[in-house]
Amino acid sequence: MHHVISIEQLSKTYASGHPALKTIDLQIRRGEIFALLGPNGAGKTTLISIICGIVNPGAGRVLVDGHDIVRDYRAARSKIGLVPQELYNEGFESVWATVRFSRGLFGKKPNDAYLEKILRDLSLWDKRDARILDLSGGMKRRVMIAKALSHEPSILFLDEPTAGVDVELRRDMWEMVRGLRESGVTIILTTHYIEEAEEMADRIGVIRQGEIILVEDKDVLMHKLGKKQLTLILQQPLAALPAGLETFQLELSADGTQLVYTFDAQHEHTGIADLLKCLGEHGIDFKDLQSSQSSLEEIFVNLVKGSRT
Length: 309
Ligand code: ATP
Prior knowledge:
Radius of gyration: 25 Å
CATH class of the largest domain: Alpha Beta
Strand content: 25-35%
Number of domains: 2
Number of helices: 10
Number of strands: 14
Structural class: alpha/beta
Largest sheet: 6 strands, mixed
CATH superfamily of the largest domain: P-loop containing nucleotide triphosphate hydrolases
Distance between the termini: 40 Å
Helix content: 25-40%
Bound molecules: adenosine-5'-triphosphate
CATH topology of the largest domain: Rossmann fold
CATH architecture of the largest domain: 3-Layer(aba) Sandwich
C-alpha cells in the first residue's frame, strides 16, 4: 500500500460549535517525513489527535495502514507513536520502568534489547534509573520520545517537537528522525519553524483555519522559493521593452522607470551578466538596482494571511 495514512473528507466541530477541521483530504506516503505547517489554532493538534484516537472524529474516514481509526481502533493505534506537545510523565517512576510500561500498554512482549537501543540513541541510557521528576526539561522530552517509540511504531507523530528545546537536543532529535526514516518509519511533524520543515521534510502541508490549503513536495516549493527578482531603476524611462530583450523574463513597470528581471537563483546560470550586457548594447543605463528573494516563510505567511476575513 502506497499510503500509510489516508484521510478522507474529515471534519471536526467541537462541542463549543467551533469548526476546527473542515473536510480534510490528505494522504501520507509510506516512509516520508511530512511537515504540517500552520498558525496557532489552525487545527494541527486536532488533526493529529483524531488520527491517534484521542479526539473523536466528526464526519469522514481515516485509515492507518488500512485500519479504520474508529472501527479498528486498537490495530490502528498500535502502528502509531505520538510525541505530544505537552510534557506529561509519571514523575516518580524511573526512566526504564516508564518506557517498559509504555511498551506493555500496547500488549507487546518485553524486549529489553530494543528499549536499551532507544535509550542509548536518545542519550538516556545513563539516566535509566533516574526518576523522571529529577530530569531536566530536555531529558523529559527525550523520555516522551522513548515512550512513543517503545512499541516499535511504524508511524511517528511529533507535535512541535523542538518548541523550546536547546540546539543540542534539536540536532539529536533530527538525527534520530533521519535514522528512523531510514529504518522505514513514516514521520509526521508539526512545526512553527519553517527552516525546520525546509531542512527535514520530504513534503510540506499547510493548514489554515481547519483547511489544508497546500500540499507540495519540498523540492518543488524550494524551487518556487529559489525565484529571485532583480529590479533595475533606469536613468531614462522606456515607453516599451526594446526588441531583442524578449529572451529575458523582463517586466517593465507601468511608468517605464523600472525593469524587473525574474530568475532562478538556484540555477547555475542566472543570466544576469547576459542581461546587463544586452542592456548596455541597447544603450539602456540604470542608476540603481535591488534584488529580492521570496522565502518559504513569505510564501507561507502570504498563504496563511490569504483570505483571512
Ligand atoms: P497550535 O499551533 O496553537 O498548537 P493547532 O493548529 O494545533 O494550534 P488546535 O489545537 O488543533 O490548533 O485547535 C484548533 C481550534 O480548535 C482552535 O480554535 C482551538 O481553540 C479549538 N479547540 C481545540 N481543542 C478544543 C476543545 N477541546 N474544545 C473546543 N475547541 C477546541
